[in-house]
Design goal:
The complex is a heterodimer of chains A (227) and B (419).
Chain A (H helix, E strand, L loop, with lengths): L5 E12 L5 E12 L3 E6 L5 H8 L7 E6 L2 E2 L5 H11 E4 L11 H12 L4 H14 L15 H13 L5 E5 L7 H18 L2 E5 L3 H5 L3 E6 L2 E2 L2
Parallel strand pairs in A: 3-8, 3-9, 6-7, 7-8
Antiparallel strand pairs in A: 1-2, 1-4, 4-5, 9-10
Helix pairs in contact in A: 3-4, 3-5
Chain B lengths: L1 H15 L1 H39 L3 E4 L38 H10 L3 E16 L2 E10 L1 H8 L5 E4 L3 H4 L3 E5 H7 L6 E6 L4 E10 L4 H4 L2 E5 H7 L9 E6 L5 H11 L3 E4 H4 L3 H37 L1 H9 L4 H36 L19 H27 L3 H7 L1
Parallel strand pairs in B: 3-8, 5-7
Antiparallel strand pairs in B: 1-9, 1-10, 2-3, 2-6, 2-9, 4-7, 5-8, 6-7
Classes of the chains: A alpha/beta (227), B alpha+beta (419).
The complex binds adenosine-5'-diphosphate and magnesium ion (MG).
């Protein structure tokens, strides 16, 4: 694959916390994710997986090393520009769903799209419904987000991550709060996204069964990639 | 587009916390209601009280008062020009109270472009004869049309009408107090004699009540001709020329000029009523102080509720930022939220303020002192409504600013890691 197919490139990422004592949590991490690739990150609790993901998603800007998203170097951008970059390029799924309880399911899915403002409200609504259909929860679209079950909420969060057709979807233990059945469901969704839509995915998990089914496993230990 | 989305989010956050938002809004509503009502009432009262003075008082009054001659004859003698002169024996000659060449002065003043209007007056000391006793008093000869145009005298005429002075020869509009003492009413005849010995029988065509007992117990209005006759003088005899200017503030300066040009004494309204606007400005100050205090309290209410809302909404703020809303967007969301509360609270306050003002406006307010006023005076000047809304928006902007700034600084990583 050519380099233009690289959606994410990280080189020698280092991160140090100073509170309460100075600890180097990431000790030079480099990784690449290509278009359509489904990558998982595994490792012991506390080895720096979440920290890495927050850096890769541009939310954390306090690190050393270079990060390129869709060919753009992020280092020189200010917070507003990074927010715009996240909006357009990255879909994020966390362990917790983070749906806005005041809004309906559909509105929750649409919000990042409304922010991006590339599509009209009608187009976006259509697009969002399509995503919800794909995830099997289109019938819940008009409900308040707070009315849904845990598994349903997580699927809404995935639909939200997909609304702007991002370059890459990142997940930080997205199945961590789900039972086996729902975890499998979420995994199948990710699998389909990667193989059928060419969606790049980078997912942190401690679920070995889950990781085993991805295209590539990155194993971390104590702030380094070991395999 | 951008603000539409932020407004939409703000609106949804607000409606989800409707009860708290309404409570925050009520604070603003209360503040603005009080502002509108107080301002309307206070300035209404100010207008009334100022009117009492401004309507009745000429900006400049020219008159001729007896005074010692400025220059004693000895001072004019060259031989004594360097001497200390102690001899001041020459007494003024009584040329009467009439203005020097009053008729000509009147015509000249009417032509003066700085002058809005001129009303001549001829005053004469009189006795009103009641049975066997005499009441001393003052008769004011006026030009009814000009007097009405410039000083709204008919506001104080409680019975009969001003125009009768023109129609009825020998008509008199009697002060209410005198009429009461004389048991006289419209249509009755009164005997009047002047200090110079002139006598007249006048017909009562009206009664007036100025609100000042001293005036009502002694003064009455007659036509200029009647007053001149009582003074034993001809048609050019005026004791006062009352002047209204286009620009009230030029009165002190023009008063000096007119005094020298027309060889008379002059007094301007500022000198005559030095204290008159002190009361007004203090009443305004109180109204502003009370309203601003109420609004500050309302502002703290909004500040608290917004802080609480932001604390509750940490997750929402974090995900908004994670999905691409900038710190500035988040700040706008909460600022808009605050402004919605301020705006709707303020508009509601205008409504209530207007309603309360209208209520006060029809409340009976009857006082001897102000015979033509039947209800409380209320000023409905839209300026105060604009000021009110601006206050509400400014207060909520400030109250919303700090919590909103805090929200904009929320680090999504901190929140997300905490879960
Ligand atoms: N804000 C912080 N201040 C100090 N240390 C932190 C902070 N956040 C995380 N850490 C430390 O960094 C290390 C890596 O954390 P994290 O990336 O959450 O691990 P993982 O997600 O792999 O379980 C841990 O030892 C954790 O205690
Ligand atoms: Mg973690």
């Amino acid at each position: 694959m050519s380099t233009s197919q690289l959606v994410l490139e990280a080189q020698d990422i280092r991160k140090t916390f100073h509170d309460p004592v100075t600890v180097e949590v990431l000790k030079g991490v480099s990784l690449e994710v290509k278009k359509g690739e489904f990558v998982s990150i595994i490792g012991k609790s506390g080895c720096g997986k979440s920290t890495l993901l927050y850096i890769l998603s541009t939310m954390d800007t306090d690190y050393q090393g270079t990060l390129r998203l869709g060919g753009e170097t992020t280092g020189s951008k200010n917070h507003a520009a990074l927010a715009a970059l996240r909006n357009a390029y990255i879909g994020f799924v966390f362990q917790f769903h983070y749906l806005l309880p005041e809004f309906s399911v559909l509105e929750n899915v649409m919000l990042p799209g409304l922010k991006l403002a590339r599509k009209s409200r009608e187009e976006l609504e259509h697009h969002a419904i399509e995503r919800l259909q794909m995830l099997g929860i289109a019938d819940q679209a008009r409900k308040k987000a707070s009315m849904l079950s845990g598994g349903q909420k997580q699927r809404v969060a995935i639909a939200r991550a997909l609304i702007n057709d991002p370059l890459i979807v990142m997940g930080d233990e997205p199945t961590g709060n789900l039972d086996r059945k729902n975890s499998d469901l979420v995994f199948d969704i990710f699998r389909d996204l990667a193989s059928e839509r060419g969606q790049a995915l980078l997912v942190v998990t401690h679920d070995m069964e889950f990781a085993a089914k991805t295209d590539r496993i990155i194993e971390m230990d104590d702030g380094r990639i070991i395999s | 587009m951008k603000y539409k989305l932020l407004l939409y989010i703000a609106w949804n956050l607000l409606t989800a916390r409707l009860r708290q938002s309404i409570i925050a809004g009520i604070g603003v509503t209360f503040g603005i209601t009080m502002f509108i009502t107080l301002m309307g009432f206070m300035t209404g009262l100010n207008g009334l009280l100022d009117g009492l003075i401004l309507n009745r008082t000429p900006h400049i009054r020219l008159y001729n008062e007896l005074e010692a001659s400025d220059k004693q004859p000895i001072e004019q003698h060259p031989d004594y020009s360097n001497h200390l002169l102690m001899q001041r024996s020459i007494k003024p000659v009584d040329r009467g109270r009439g203005l020097y060449n009053g008729g000509a002065a009147l015509e000249a003043l009417k032509q003066d472009p700085r002058v809005l209007g001129v009303a001549p007056k001829t005053q004469s000391q009189v006795f009103y004869h009641v049975g066997t006793t005499d009441i001393t008093g003052l008769v004011q000869g006026i030009d009814p049309a000009e007097e009405e145009r410039l000083f709204h005298v008919s506001d104080y005429i409680v019975k009969g009408e001003l125009e009768s002075l023109k129609r009825v020869e020998n008509g008199i509009i009697l002060g209410y107090g005198i009429a009461e003492k004389m048991l006289a009413d419209l249509g009755d005849m009164v005997q009047v004699s002047s200090a110079t010995g002139e006598k007249a029988t006048l017909k009562i065509v009206g009664l007036y009540q100025s609100g000042l007992a001293e005036v009502d117990n002694s003064q009455s209005y007659v036509s200029l001709a009647t007053a001149q006759k009582l003074a034993g003088q001809g048609a050019g005899y005026f004791t006062d020329i009352q002047i209204k200017l286009h620009d009230l503030n030029r009165a002190p300066e023009l008063s000096k000029e007119f005094a020298s040009v027309y060889k008379a004494q002059a007094v301007d309204i500022q000198t005559a009523n030095a204290q008159f606007d002190t009361g007004s400005s203090i009443r305004n100050l109180i109204s502003y102080a009370v309203s601003i205090t109420l609004l500050i309290v309302a502002g703290f209410g909004i500040y608290n509720i917004l802080n609480m809302m932001i604390y509750e909404k940490m997750d929402s703020i974090a995900i908004l930022k994670a999905t691409g809303f900038s710190g500035r967007d988040v700040q706008w969301i909460f600022l808009l939220l605050s402004m919605i509360i301020g705006f709707s609270g303020g508009i509601l306050g205008l409504g209530f303020g207007y309603a309360l003002s209208s209520l006060i406006d029809v409340l009976p307010f009857e006082t001897e002192a102000l015979p033509t006023i039947k209800t409380y005076p209320v000023n409905f000047d839209p300026v105060y409504y604009f000021t009110g809304v601006s206050f509400a928006l400014a207060t909520t902007w400030v109250a919303g600013w700090f919590p909103a700034k805090k929200a904009s600084k929320v680090d999504p990583v901190d929140i997300i890691r905490g879960k």
